[in-house]
Amino acid sequence: MAATYLPTLKQLQYLVALKDHGHFGRAAEACYVTQSTLSAGLRELETLIGVTLVERTRRVVRFTSLGERITEKARRVLREAEELGDMARAAGRPLSGEMRMSVIPTIAPFMLPRILPQLREQYPDLKLFLREEPSGPACEGLHNGRTDCVLLALPYSCGEVTSQILFEDPLFVAFQAIDIDRPTPRIPVSAIDETRLLLLEDGHCLKDHALAACNRPEIRAEATMLGTSLHTIVQMVDNGLGMTMLPEMAVRAGILNNTSISARPLDAANAVRSIALVWRRASPREKDFRLLAQVLADAY
Questions:
Q1: Count of structural domains, the chain
Q2: Range of the domain at 22
Q3: What is the C-alpha to C-alpha distance for residues 230 and 198, in angstroms, rounded to an integer?
Q4: Do the domain assignments include residue 2?
Q5: DSSP per residue over 37-98, as a string?
Q6: Among 49, 73, 126, 191, whose Cα sits 20 to 30 Å from the Cα of 13?
């Protein structure tokens, strides 16, 4: 019987990295190899299976139609291979070894400083690699195996995942006297001037949570969407350019310190987001993720 030659996991990693980065140099850096090593590995893969996967030009890396399909299959193979290690770790000590977690920008700076010290103390053998990114890329990275779990805010459609809610995070209205001169303990939606409302741009789920809580079409039409961070929007509010909405965790973390901004809870039926940990369904590390979710909730 003739020998059967199969692609190596390393070759599949090179292929997926090139697809993700669209550049041989950046893909090689991501794989911690030289560009010539990565290029040679891909050529060996193409020779092995007898097809061209990537069209190479001086300026563009273009995948063939078959190359696109094989790359997606390679992602699934790599994910399955990683889960072999996950199964072994899950059978050993809880929350040990490497874990990659994406955290959305409206959570990361306000929650992580509170929880990471306690997590390190309780589980020193856990090597938690963090990536801050918006909900869309975070969920995409979860499904293609780039990350193991995501810390995000619900409601958000993240695909076929399992989730565990950690706690509820109410929405606050942040303003100056120029916008609300006689604030009540809870700010009604009717008090919000849609022409003065500053929100994050598309891609940040906090914007969608805020608009859903207000349930006023004119706010969706008139509010100013900014491609920036909550910290930058707070500076704009502090300079009298408008008002905004903030999650309670940001207010508790001191985002309004050294400003003249006031903050009150938004008075609306669904003026809250649910902070949750999500992971791929049927993951062999589900026990670890549920334990991590409980630890995060307790630490916060």
A1: 2
A2: 9-87
A3: 10
A4: no
A5: HHHHHHHHHHHHHTS--EEE-SS-EEE-HHHHHHHHHHHHHHHHHHHHHHHHHHHSSTT-EE
A6: 126
Domain identity same for 179 and 211: yes
- Report the Cα 231 to chain-centroid distance in Å: 18
Angle, in degrees to the nearest 10, between helices 108-122 and 286-299: 110
Nearest to 77 by CA among 162, 3, 8, 31: 8
For residue 173, the cross-strand partners are 245, 264
Task: For residue range 78-117, list pLDDT tens digits in order.
Answer: 877 777 766 666 556 778 888 899 999 999 999 999 999 9
| Separation between Cα atoms, residue 227 and residue 134, nearest integer Å | 12
CA dist 191 and 188 (Å) reads 6
Contact 98, 149 (CB under 8 A): no
pTM: 0.74
CB 16 within 8 A of CB 31: no
